[in-house]
Structures are given as C-alpha cells and as structure tokens.
Design a protein that fits this description.
The complex is a heterodimer of chains A (152) and B (344). By secondary structure, chain A is α+β, with helices and mostly antiparallel strands. Chain A has five helices and eight strands. Chain B has two domains: 120 residues, no CATH class; 181 residues, Helix Hairpins (Orthogonal Bundle), CATH 1.10.287.1490. Chain B is built from six helices and five strands. The chains are: A alpha+beta (152), B mainly alpha (344).
C-alpha cells in the first residue's frame, strides 16, 4: 500500500505539503481487521484516529438497555476516532468492521511529533478536523430544527 | 561515545565500511533465521517420527495380540473337532448296530411274508378242493382243514403287520442315526476348515506384527538420527548467534555507536536530548511507527525506542514561506463555502 497516496485522498489532510504527508505516512501504522472485529469500543480511552483505506465499518452506540444501535456506516477514504483526539474524552461509539478492512492509524503521540515539526501542517489538520466536526454539528442542528418546527 | 551530526550519521551509513558490516550482519541474520527454521522443522519431524514410532509399536502389539487370539480360537476349535470326531465314532457304531438289527427284522419280515404266501396258496387250494368235492365226509374234512389254514393265515398276517411296523420304526431310527452321523461329519469338516483358517490368520497377524515392530524400530532409529541432526543444528545455531552478537557488538568499535539488540544508537549533536536510532531489521508492529532497517529515526535519550520519530525535514525546508494559515484566515466565507444554520 502506498500510504502517501492514501493520505492524500483524505479531506483530513487537505492542504498539506508533500513533505508533511510523507512524515504523516511514516507516523501512521497499517492495521488490518477481519469482518466483525471491533476496532474500539464505546467507553474506551481514545488515543488515535483511523483512516479507512479499504472496507466498510459500522458505527454503533449502546442503548440504555445494552443493545446496539447502528448510527452509520463509513467507507474509504473516511476517517473516525478524531473526536477523542480533540476532547480527550472516552470513545463515544463502537466501531466494528463490516467487512475485511484496512486502516491507517495515527496515534495522539505520533500526531504530537508531527505538530512539533510542522506547526502549520498540524494547524491545518486541526482545522480540517474542526471543519468535519462543524459540518456534523450543522447537520445535527438542521435535523433538530426540522424536528422541532411545527408542520415539519 | 561521540555525538554526531545527522549528516555524519548519513555519511557513515553510506560508507563502504558500514555497507560491508551491514552486509555481513544481514547474511548472518539470514543464516540465523534459516537455522531457526531448520531447528523448528527438526523438532516437528522428531515429534512426528516419535509419534509414528509409538503408534506403529501399538499397532504391532495389537497385531501380536490378535495372532494370540487366533491361536487360542484355533486350539479351542481343534478340541471341539476332536470331541465331535469321538461322537461321530459312537454315532457310526450306533448306526451299525441299528443297521444289523433292521437287517434281521427285514429277514424276519421276508420269512413271514413267505409263510403268508404259502398259507394263502394252501387256503386257495383247500377252497377250490372244497368247491369240487361232492363227498360229504371229504367236504367236512376239507372244511376243517380250510378253517385251520384260514385261522393260521390270519395269525401270520397279524404277525406280518407287527413285523412290518417294527421294521418301519427301526428303519426310520436307522436313517435318523445316519443323519446324525452325517451331521457330525459336516460339523467336523466345518470346524477343521475354520481351524486352518484361524491358523493362517494367526500366522499372518504374527508376520504383520513383526513387520510393524521392525517399522517402529526404523522410526525410532530415524528419531535418533534426527535428534543428532538437531543437536548439530543447535550447536551451529549457538555458534552463529555468538558470532552474530560479536559482529553486532563490533559496530561499537567500528562506528563509535551504542549497540542494542535491534538498534544502533548515536547521540545527536543537533538535539542534546535525542539519539539517532538505526533499526537493524524492518518492524511492522511493536513500535509506535513502522520501521525500516537502516533508516534513521530519532528517540528521546530517556525513553529510547519506546517512542520513535521520523527525522525532521532539513532546516531549509522549514524556513521557506508558508502562507497557508494566513490564507485560511484571509479567505472569505463565500470562498470557503462554509455557512450553516447558525450563520445565516
């Protein structure tokens, strides 16, 4: 797998310079998951984000009765796990491979190495994460607005 | 140990001397892996052969046990056959006595029949004479004689019926005794054939057992040969590991570095708290990043390889103008294509 090419496909690393992408490629680790394998569980301590290279994963949340609810499905080149990098909270959902999946994993500590070397590159990564989180928040707001507007 | 500049480390890694050292290390490591694979393979073969020896010996013992069982069965059947043979002699004797007795009855029956025929002839003769005679005295005499003969004939006919019935009964018994003789001879034949079959099977099982014992011994010999081969391979591997350690340690003298089991280290002159780490093999897992052999990585002196970093870019690269963050703040909302519910 060409890690540089895979990283370039992701909106998470939009605007990064080739040397920055190259360093990130060195800092990411390739991980393989089989169908049904859990990448991480809701409530785990999060210390890394994942970039999907191949396959599909399910995002699941536990209901109060302990059963799982499917929130969404993600496929390449989407990423997940970025929220714990930002808010340092526990994982908000469980991620399970729906098919065989290949991912690139970037740990908090390795991202810190990147930040020490490429401050602007790191800022752009954070901006990109913020953009995604912001877009998700807007989407949620819209849904809530529609739900609470009479006649909708 | 002298701290080096990055360029010095790079030059050293590109030097002919290092290339030779690395080539030798690489070759020795290849031999080590090959040796380790061979030892694993030999262990597997020894276990397999030992298992086969044990299994084959068990089969040999089973075959020997079966041979004994067949022999026991043959002996039991032989004893049974002898008993049946004795019974058959007795049955033949009984039959012979019966045959003589039946023959006597038959003769007696023949005599009685003959007597009956004579009497019938005489009765007919007296009857005809009585019909032809006109003399009263003669007729009276003939009547008395005829009555006597008829009475005698009736008695003989009763005797014939009794003798015939007796003959039928005894002849039937004779036939029954013959059937018993034939039955005993048949059983004796079956058992004798079965005895021979059991004897042959016993012999075959014994041969099979001997063959299996020999095979088990061959496997045991093979195990011993493999164990010797394993000991040789382990001795060679030990020597190779010692040479490998020695060769790896020679890097300290040759290149002035610190030598770990999997890395070479040089203190960095650019960064006082850092060391340059050179992995001696590729590592996909087990470290915080994927490592390539003979690439240069940076580590904190205290943490060592627990946390490795790729080399930072050259200073020139960092010093060039980078306006990306400024651009982000300069770009208008419309151009950025942003805007949401709260922004409208």
């Amino acid at each position: 797998m060409n890690k540089v090419e895979e990283l370039q496909k992701s909106r998470l690393f939009e605007g990064l310079l080739p040397e920055e992408i190259e360093m990130l490629a060195e800092l990411t680790q390739q991980k393989k998951y089989t169908e049904g394998e859990v990448v991480f569980e809701q409530g785990d301590v999060g210390d890394s984000l994942y970039l999907l290279v191949e396959g599909v994963v399910e995002v699941l949340q536990k209901r109060s009765d302990g059963s799982e609810q499917l929130i969404t499905e993600l496929q390449a080149p989407e990423f997940f796990g970025e929220m714990s990098l930002i808010d340092k909270e526990y994982r908000s959902a469980t991620i399970r491979a729906k098919s065989e999946a290949i991912m690139l994993c970037l740990t908090n500590e390795n991202l810190h190495s990147f930040a020490r070397v490429y401050k602007n590159g790191f800022t752009l990564v954070v901006i990109n994460i913020a953009r995604v989180l912001s877009a998700r928040l807007r989407e949620t707001n819209l849904k809530l607005l529609k739900k609470n507007t009479p006649g909708q | 140990m002298k701290a080096l500049w990055l360029r010095e480390v790079r030059r050293l890694l590109e030097s002919e001397r290092f290339s030779q050292w690395w080539g030798r290390l690489h070759e020795m490591d290849r031999q080590r892996r090959q040796g380790a694979d061979k030892i694993t393979e030999l262990h597997s073969q020894i276990n397999l052969m030992a298992f086969r020896a044990e299994q084959t010996q068990k089969e040999a013992i089973d075959a020997l046990y079966r041979a004994g069982e067949y022999e026991d069965k043959a002996a039991r059947l032989r004893a049974e056959a002898a008993e049946i043979e004795n019974k058959s002699y007795e049955a033949v004797a009984n039959f012979e006595n019966q045959r003589i007795m039946v023959s006597d009855i038959y003769s007696r029956m023949g005599a009685v029949e003959h007597h009956q025929l004579s009497l019938k002839t005489e009765v007919e003769k007296f009857s005809r004479s009585l019909e032809q005679s006109r003399d009263a005295e003669q007729r009276a005499e003939l009547k008395r004689s005829l009555k006597r003969k008829q009475s005698e004939l009736a008695k003989v006919e009763r005797e014939l019926a009794e003798v015939s019935a007796h003959y039928e009964r005894e002849n039937k018994r004779k036939m029954s005794l013959w059937e018993e003789v034939e039955h005993l001879w048949g059983r004796s034949l079956d058992i004798n054939l079965s005895v021979s079959e059991k004897k042959v099977r016993s012999k075959r099982s014994r041969q099979e057992s001997e063959r299996l014992f020999k095979r088990a011994e061959d496997f045991k010999d093979k195990v011993e040969q493999l164990k010797e081969e394993l000991q040789r391979a382990e001795r060679q591997q030990k020597q190779l590991l010692e040479s490998l350690d020695e060769h790896r340690s020679s890097a300290r003298q040759l290149f002035g570095c610190s030598v770990g089991e999997e890395f070479l280290y040089w203190p960095s002159r650019e960064r006082e708290k850092s060391v340059f780490c050179i992995p001696l093999a590729d590592h996909q897992d087990g470290f915080n990043i994927e490592l390539k052999a003979i690439n240069i990585y940076l580590a904190d002196r205290q943490r060592g390889v627990e946390f490795l970093e790729p080399l930072p870019p050259d200073n020139e690269m960092l010093s060039r103008d980078d306006t990306r963050i400024d651009d982000f703040f300069r770009v208008s909302r419309e151009d950025a294509g942003l805007g949401g519910v709260g922004d409208k």
